[in-house]
Amino acid sequence: MIIFAVVASNIHWHWTPNGYLAGILAFVAALLALEVVGLFLIQLSGIGQLMKFGLALMAELADAGGG
Questions:
Q1: Which domain holds residue 52?
Q2: Rounded Cα distance, 51 and 39, in Å
Q3: Is 16 left (phi over 0), alpha (psi -120 to 50) or beta?
């Protein structure tokens, strides 16, 4: 991730004279890459299934208690 952020921040020197825009774009690109990798790892490890089960259980309990 750090390497990606450094490379993305170097856009300033090659593609645009606006350093603020390049920095913001690099930050957003690093966040998106982190999100994609995080979601992939969650699905790969099976934690995603556990999270879905927990959310469904919480919704079921909320429906039973509120009704």
A1: 2-66
A2: 12
A3: beta
Residue 55 CA to chain centroid, in angstroms?
19
Q: How many independent structural domains does the chain possess?
A: 1
Query: Which tokens belong to 31?
Result: 């966040």
Would you give per-residue pLDDT tens digits along the chain (67 residues)? 667 767 766 665 666 677 777 778 888 888 898 888 888 877 777 777 778 888 888 888 888 876 5
Whole-number Cα distances in Å, 25 to 13, 30, 34, 38, 51:
13, 9, 14, 20, 31
DSSP code per residue over the chain: -HHHHHHHHTHHHHT-S-HHHHHHHHHHHHHHHHHHHHHHHHHHHTHHHHHHHHHHHHHHHHHHHH-
